[in-house]
Amino acid sequence: MIKIIIERRIMPGLEEEYEEAAREAMRESLGARGFVGGESLVELGHSDRRLMITKWRDMRAWKEWYSSETRTRVMQRLLPLLTEEERIRIYEPTAH
């Protein structure tokens, strides 16, 4: 199991439009093979900063989604709303 942390900064005034596009992206990812779950967070006091935390079965499932036509399509709607490129970090459980 891996977790993908995505940080995004939204252009001021476009938060509502972003929320709509982000909900669509999350809905689309629900159908992706290997998608386990996810949540979207807003930073307290900074409505332009968002954090997406998604959980995937494995790296292969994430890469398949990341390069999919579906993600490309939903990102075409999201990207123009951002002030900078999204930052993606990939985490895995520590070995015990």
In words, what does this structure look like?
The chain is 35% helix and 34% strand. It is globular and about 45 Å long. The chain has one domain: Alpha-Beta Plaits (2-Layer Sandwich), CATH 3.30.70.100. The two termini are 15 Å apart. The protein contains 3 helices and 4 strands. A 4-stranded antiparallel β-sheet has the order 2-3-1-4. The model has no long low-confidence stretch (mean pLDDT 94). It has 96 residues and is α+β, with helices and mostly antiparallel strands. Helix 1 runs antiparallel to helix 3. It has helices spanning 15-30, 59-66, 69-78, and strands spanning 2-9, 35-43, 46-56, 87-91.
Highlighted features:
Alpha-Beta Plaits, 4 strands, 35% helix
Q: How would you concisely characterize the structure shown here?
A:
The chain is α+β, with helices and mostly antiparallel strands.
How far is the first residue's CA from the last residue's CA? Answer: 15 Å
Note poorly predicted spans. none
Large-scale geometry: globular
Structural category: alpha+beta
Largest sheet: 4 strands, antiparallel
Q: What's the gyration radius in Å?
A: 13 Å
Helix-strand sequence: EHEEHHE
- Percentage of residues in strands: 25-35%
Count of structural domains: 1
Identify the CATH architecture: 2-Layer Sandwich
Question: Helicity, in percent?
Answer: 25-40%
Number of helices: 3
Q: What is the CATH topology assignment?
A: Alpha-Beta Plaits
Report the mean per-residue pLDDT as an integer.
Answer: 94
Widest β-sheet, arrangement of strands: 2-3-1-4
The number of distinct β-strands equals 4
CATH class: Alpha Beta
Organism: Halomonas alimentaria
Protein name: DUF1330 domain-containing protein
Domain ABM: 2-91
Pfam families: ABM
